[in-house]
Design goal:
Layout: H1 3-21, E1 23-29, E2 32-39, E3 44-45, E4 58-61, E5 68-69, E6 71-73, E7 78-81, E8 89-93, E9 108-116, E10 127-131, E11 138-143, E12 146-147, E13 152-156, E14 162-166, E15 172-174, E16 181-195, E17 202-215
InterPro entries: DUF4198 (IPR019613)
Signal peptide: 1-21
Protein name: DUF4198 domain-containing protein
């Protein structure tokens, strides 16, 4: 392999690794929902023409998973038009290319999942944090509808304070929300599940799911 090809291959691996470490989260403003790709704790939001382009086949929906919502690409986010009166909005991105060497036993397919809101006490995605009661701070982490115990969940609070928690034996976790503003929680589940073919073949599936919601009452905090 020539030096140029070696450098290009190394750059591609680094690019994939950076994208694999990121998450998608949703921020709602009335009937507009914005999907960001990056790291909420660092306020890092990738842009069109860069890593945001990796989110190439997202699907968003409200109450009906089969009724896709329109998505428009903006400079640093994807914009979803939420139907009037809709409660929680979800986004699924399954089109990411696998990362890791082709043919290696750890080649991984990433799936990004995001939910905005805690009004619905039901799961509609493969990996999802579901409130026990609408608007509450206790959640069940579900994997294909079943509680997922002993799994790490990371919560980012409005002042970009971050805390790692674990679900209990019943998949439950409780968040403390002392600040007013938006919270983003992330859960990751990796499993041995082969699929795809050719360059798209993989041996592992990595689900990255976020839940974002806002708290109206609490300690005031202004983003700097």
């Amino acid at each position: 392999m020539t030096l140029k090809r070696t450098l290009l291959a190394a750059a591609a691996i680094l690019f994939a690794a950076q994208a694999g470490a990121h998450q998608v989260w949703l921020e709602r403003d009335g009937q507009t929902v914005r999907a960001y790709f990056g790291e909420p704790v660092e306020n890092l939001r990738e842009r069109t023409g860069g890593l945001l382009d990796r989110i190439s086949g997202p699907r968003a929906f409200a109450a009906d998973p089969q009724a896709s919502l329109p998505i428009e690409r903006r400079a640093d986010h994807l914009e979803i038009a939420a139907p009037a009166g809709s409660a929680d909005i979800r986004l699924v991105e399954q089109s990411l290319a696998p990362f890791g060497r082709q043919g290696s036993p750890d080649r991984t397919k990433g799936v990004l999942l995001a939910r905005e809101g805690r009004s619905e006490t039901r799961a509609a995605m493969d990996l999802e944090l579901v409130p026990v009661v609408a608007g509450g701070n206790e959640f069940i982490l579900t994997l294909r509808g079943q509680p997922l115990p002993r799994t790490e969940v990371t919560l980012v609070a409005p002042p970009r304070w971050q805390r790692s928690l674990r679900t209990d034996a019943n998949g439950r976790v409780t968040f403390e929300t002392p600040w007013a503003g938006r919270y983003v929680a992330e859960a990751i589940h990796t499993e041995e599940q082969a699929g795809g073919s050719g360059e798209g073949a993989y041996t592992r599936l990595r689900l990255v799911s976020t839940l974002s919601f806002t708290v109206q009452d609490g300690i005031a905090w202004t983003q700097r």
